[in-house]
Design a protein that fits this description.
The longest helix has 14 residues, at 330-343. Helices cover 9% and strands 29% of the residues. It is globular, with a radius of gyration of 20 Å. It has helices at residues 4-7, 84-94, 104-107, 330-343, and strands at 108-112, 118-120, 125-130, 136-140, 143-154, 163-170, 178-184, 193-199, 208-210, 221-227, 231-236, 239-245, 261-268, 288-303, 306-307, 344-347. With 369 residues, the chain is mainly beta. The chain has 4 helices and 16 strands. The strands form 2 sheets. Strands 1-4-13-6-7-8-9-16 form an 8-stranded antiparallel beta sheet. Strands 2, 3, 5, 10, 11, 12, 14 and 15 form an 8-stranded antiparallel beta sheet that branches. One of its GO terms (biological process) is plant-type secondary cell wall biogenesis. Catalyzes xyloglucan endohydrolysis (XEH) and/or endotransglycosylation (XET). Cleaves and religates xyloglucan polymers, an essential constituent of the primary cell wall, and thereby participates in cell wall construction of growing tissues. One of its GO terms (molecular function) is hydrolase activity, hydrolyzing O-glycosyl compounds. Keywords: Apoplast, Cell wall, Cell wall biogenesis/degradation, Disulfide bond, Glycoprotein, Glycosidase, Hydrolase, Secreted, Signal, Transferase.
Length: 369
């Protein structure tokens, strides 16, 4: 295991190359128009204080690089200055926002932060704050085994470099399952990076990353996870950005047996989050604050070893149950392809340098989008 500062500091331009002999070689990118995000995948251990934070050490299996990005999959960092055509499409995408108001007192509990996490406005708003002493976090009171989870977030504004806002589903233990949204902060004027990952039986390394087609700090936006026995769909404002299908038929494990809680945290990750740790958190900007509202879970609640849903379909307590067998229709698939063509900046399924012996088996057109 190597110390971070032994392999992740360099000069010139940045590139990341994965190999067993040379896990990470970094060159500092100088042209903003061609800069790819320099970040490292991680798991629950880096998101909550329940586990030790290995701030300077990374396991070799968790390194990855971005040199395989090609021009048609690389979005410009100036993603908020859209062309008229893309601007019109983004307006149409934004019209699909749907949110249900929930009481955050009822659904969540603050788990750490010494008062830096607050539930306000009679349960309508939750805020997480980060300063030089500590971050903060919360978790759901319920565990879920399949469902459609929606939450509106407004991210840390201004210079958010070094900060990470994590919002995810996770079980516990060394063979945990996990479905991740993580928002990697950046310098003022540069876009956030939306990092997604799927863990099953403790195995992750399924990263896809995106820029967003709007400023996620100016207003609230809805981030959704649809998780059923056939697929996991990540959506932003009702627009699907990623689909991970059940590929057990070809030997790929799928999260379907472990109930998961919802977790969220705001914390300092300036040892890796922004340009591979080369840009540090500016503590003069603290406290950093992220806000949450309009939580909705149309889901199977797991309690006392049993699900609130039957073995095949959600119970009548589910508001619709349509999510349990939902798949992307042709219109949704086209919208997802539009996002991936214009805003995806990393896809593990195209990273042949990271997987020189062959891409993971799920990385085919029929099993993963």
């Amino acid at each position: 295991m190597l110390k971070f500062d032994e392999w992740c500091l360099g000069n010139g331009k940045v590139d990341l190359h994965f190999s067993l002999l040379n896990p990470c070689k970094i060159r500092l990118l100088t042209e903003p128009s061609s800069r790819s995000p320099s970040t490292f995948p991680h798991d629950t251990y880096y998101k909550t204080p329940t586990y030790p934070r290995h701030s300077l050490h990374f396991h070799a299996q968790n390194y990855f690089h971005f040199s395989s990005l090609n021009s048609h999959s690389m979005a410009s960092p100036s993603t908020w200055n859209l062309s008229p055509k893309l601007f019109l499409v983004s307006l149409l995408l934004g019209s699909f926002v749907v949110a249900s108001v929930g009481n955050l007192y009822q659904d969540f509990e603050i788990t750490w932060g010494d008062g830096r996490a607050k539930i306000l406005n009679n349960g309508e708003l939750l805020t997480l704050s980060l300063d030089k002493t500590s971050g903060s976090g919360f978790q759901s009171k319920n565990e879920y085994l399949f469902g459609k989870i929606d939450m509106q977030l407004k991210l840390v504004p201004g210079n958010s470099a070094g900060t990470v806002t994590a919002y995810y589903l996770s079980s516990q233990g060394p063979t945990h399952d996990e479905i991740d949204f993580e928002f990697l902060g950046n310098l003022s004027g540069d876009p956030y990076i939306l990092h997604t990952n799927v863990f099953s039986q403790g195995k992750g390394n399924r990263e896809q990353q995106f820029y967003l087609w709007f400023d996620p700090t100016a207003d609230f936006h809805t981030y959704s996870i649809l998780w059923n026995p056939q697929r996991i769909i990540f959506s932003v404002d009702g627009t699907p950005i990623r689909e991970f299908k059940n590929s057990e038929s070809i030997g790929v494990s799928y999260p379907k047996n472990q109930p998961m809680r919802i977790y969220s945290s705001l914390w300092n990750a300036d040892d890796w989050a922004t340009r591979g740790g080369l840009v540090k958190t500016d503590w003069s900007q603290a406290p950093f604050t992220a806000s949450y509202r309009n939580f909705n879970a149309d889901a199977c609640i797991w309690s006392s070893g049993a699900s609130s849903c039957s073995s095949t379909t959600p119970s009548s307590t589910s508001t619709s149950g349509q999510w349990y067998s939902q798949e992307l229709d042709s219109t949704s698939q086209e919208r997802m392809k539009w996002v991936q063509k214009n805003y995806m900046i990393y896809n593990y399924c195209t990273d042949t340098k990271r997987f020189p012996q062959g891409l993971p088996p799920e990385c085919t057109a029929t099993t993963l989008s």
